[in-house]
Design brief:
Elements lengths: L4 E8 L9 E11 L7 H9 L6 E17 L16 E16 L2 E14 L5 H12 L14 E12 L1 E5 L2 E14 L2 E14 L26 E17 H4 L14 E13 L2 E10 L10 E11 L1
Antiparallel strand pairs: 1-2, 1-13, 2-3, 3-4, 4-5, 5-6, 6-8, 7-8, 8-9, 9-10, 10-11, 11-12, 12-13
Amino acid sequence: MRGPLITLIEENDDFALNGDQHYTQGLKLSYLYGDEQIPNWAYALAHNIPDLGMSVETPRFGYTVGQNIYTPRNIRSPVALTYDRPYAGWLYFGMILERQGKQAGIPVNDTFEVDLGFIGPESFAAQAQAWWHTVGGWIVPKGWGNQLNTEPAIDIKYSRQWKFSTVSQGVGLELIPDAGFSLGNVMTYAGAGALVRFGYNIPNDFGPQTIDSLAHATGSPRGRHPFGWYIFAGADGRAVLHNAFLDGNLYQPSPHVAKEPLVADFKAGIVFVFRRFDIAGSFVQRTREYKGQPRADRFGSISINASF
């Protein structure tokens, strides 16, 4: 049985020595109730959404809050640059519905997430970045006056993951493919990918997630092993129909660039697992997201999962 789970993810391009540009900072905090604490309406919803061939065993429900910050490559210019991606922020609150089970005997995890919030000045991205850069003694970006305009925003995400495992004397190798989509005026795309992990006493979960992952960290039953570890590598590709942070505001004129319709993330990292928490460090390489982008981006992600 899984108890309540708190997940904190911090992402920054400085972790990967990328400099302040493009997707430069993300912070996300989530809380999932324990297996037996799901509200009645969420339990009913989990069992009435089409299962797509999955036998639903353990639904779960929770909340999340987060903020993403995006800047152009040139943060010294006070004017909008038509060849560079715009300044943008996204502040949101969301709900997560997760259900696990099996499909043809294979462990499966479904994640549904609905995030509501604001793009634009109400995201407080300008203030957050200015404060942090002032504290650190770094240059404060000059062009936040050109950021995307105020826009109420919604992001609806769905993901399905499958897990194929082989374990011998605590040493395990797992393949976790996934597929899903995002809908809304924040992001609209379809994506698929896979993750491979190898280690000792690998937890009974579906691997680490980044902030923009379609899936959410699941956690594992409490107290199974006092210590474990694993290394992982994976890739995700997506066909992008809309990206507000590149296309600009949906309802009004704003800075924008011509996006690339196909984008991929390549990631690798290590996870240390303890009885009640785990900590993951990830390196992510992202292919070019807009036409004329000088090079691919990279960022680092640190996530902590604590269960009770």
